[in-house]
Amino acid sequence: MKIEDNWKSKTLESLEKKIWPSLDPEESTYLIRTCSSLRKKPLQDFTTEDLRIMIGQNIGLKYLIPIAIETLESNILAEGDYFEGDLLQSVLKSDKRYWELEKENRQKICKIFDFNKIVLQEFDTTKDIRKDIFDAFHNFKLTE
After folding, report:
1. What are phi and psi of 61, to 5 degrees?
2. Do the beta carbons of residue 113 and residue 137 sit within 8 Å?
3. Which of 26, 80, 96, 137 is the most exposed place for a label (fewest CB within 10 A)?
4. What's the rounded Cα separation, in Å, for the pair 71 and 87?
5. DSSP 8-state code for residue 79
């Protein structure tokens, strides 16, 4: 994937050259308003929660997955607003078509997961969250 050198200083709107129509706050949901607002935010200013939300909605994956990979490399349990590992879970459950095209990023995620498997098996969380993360990785690997 070829991206401009200064791409992180830009917004999804400018990178994708698509501007979403203005929203009526009374007729749109919190999620729609948030996603619309995040499309106008420079990528370098995205928080873990911003990444989790947008990746969870399969928005801007071409630009946001590489940032998520950087985040997960330094902390596999990077946390948005829900639980430790929620960014990883969003990445693993994101659009399979993206991963079919971006095999290098796919390999990076698999390596990060495998390298941190013990951390993921032992971190303090609920049994359901741990199971969901490992199930998501299993399904992620199946799409190879």
Report:
1. -55, -40
2. yes
3. 26
4. 9
5. B
